[in-house]
Amino acid sequence: MTEQKRVFPSPFPVSGGHFECEQREAAYGKHYGINACNGCKGFFRRSIWNNRQYLCRFRGTCIIAKEHRNVCRACRLKQCFVNPRAVQSEREKSNGSGSNGCAEIEEDVEELSRSGSPPEVSCISTGSQTEIGFQSPTNGSKNSPAKSSEMQLFYERKASKLLAYHRQIMDNADLFVKPDSPLVVPSEVRQVPFLLAFDEYYKISNCTRINYQPESIANLRDMDLDWRRCFVLMREWLEPFQKLSREDQMRLVKDRFHHYHWLITGYYTSRIENPDVGVCYCNGTYFPRSPLKQCVPDETGMIEKTVNELVTPLRQLCLDETEISCLLVISMFYENSNLSIEGQNLSKEVCAEHMNILYNHNQARFTSQNMAEMTPRFSYMLLIFMTLNNLSKLMVSQLGDVLLIHDW
């Protein structure tokens, strides 16, 4: 029985004997036996050889142009699939000119400068410029089962410590303080500077018991208390990361507090029996979806967006506590361009480490599934950070007034 070869129609226009990419780059040579433009050659090769998985946020409808071809790499790679014989030996000598190689190097440098990761780090693109690099715990260890097992145990221990710390923070509460007790700060000094709030965060909120069950409808005071209690939670999460300078820690809290708050709120809302009631707060109250029950009108549609774009996907992912612990840390440390150079480097290290912990935990949790089934779930986790960015932009109120910090 002879093998039938599949022929993929080319998405690129061919005029006469001249080939031209849809990104308007001329093709001066061939790539794996087919015509290819300079810019796409290196991208296509890296995607195939490194087995990179891309996911489009807009169901494959992105318009790929030369000026912003990396906005969605899933759609860009789809345009490159014009021949199924893509993977060939790297040792085959190329007859291309030096200019072609220069274009490849520029493309390599451009991509690596964005990801900040070495070539062996596999990237999952979520259809945007927000990238978080991770390295498979088994990558580079395929020929050494002992080394792979040792690395797996290493990340399992890391995951256990992270989970224990997460539970310690969530269970940390003053049993003698009721959720509706007034703040310990006298009324005449309720507004505090950020420096004081950062060092003595107990002045922002009492250490009340965390309760995300929707027991009653929230009023304005309940909403404010939820934000203040989450501020204390985030400060406690930063305690293990004392390598960051004090200035960088303060910048990080200001820049990433929105993301941390919405992620932990969305996660625990997704775990209740009926998450469609609205958004749950950590003091046993909830903000309802029904406009008739809301204490203040949701003019920006924040609650509806939170339920549809954050709570529902989190519920479908069925995250466990280890996974949300990793995601909470990553939500604080990714995209911290306002930090110092040392702080940015440390943030990348923290993100990479916790992505590896998350990846290893997924492998252990879904041992009966192959990589093709696990990778999409891992990609959807990364899409959560895009939702957090969008939600943070909808915050129209002054967070400093909510947190009682006059110079936020």
UniProtKB/TrEMBL annotation:
In terms of CDD domains, this protein maps to: NR_DBD_HNF4A
Q: Does the keyword DNA-binding apply?
A: yes
Domain (NR LBD): residue spans on this chain: 176-408
One cellular-component annotation, GO: nucleus
Q: Which GO terms describe its molecular function?
A: DNA-binding transcription factor activity; RNA polymerase II cis-regulatory region sequence-specific DNA binding; zinc ion binding
Q: Where are its TM segments located?
A: none
Q: Entry's InterPro entries? A: C.elegans_NHRs (IPR052499), HNF4-like_DBD (IPR049636), NHR-like_dom_sf (IPR035500), Nucl_hrmn_rcpt_lig-bd (IPR000536), Znf_hrmn_rcpt (IPR001628), Znf_NHR/GATA (IPR013088)
Q: Where does the Nuclear receptor domain lie?
A: 21-94
Top-rank lineage group of the source organism = Eukaryota
| Localization per record | Nucleus
SMART domains in the cross-refs: HOLI, ZnF_C4
Record's keyword terms, sorted = DNA-binding, Metal-binding, Nucleus, Receptor, Transcription, Transcription regulation, Zinc, Zinc-finger
Q: Which family does it belong to?
A: Belongs to the nuclear hormone receptor family.
**PANTHER family hit by this protein:** NUCLEAR HORMONE RECEPTOR FAMILY MEMBER NHR-62 (PTHR47630:SF4), NUCLEAR HORMONE RECEPTOR FAMILY-RELATED-RELATED (PTHR47630)
Protein name as annotated = Nuclear receptor domain-containing protein
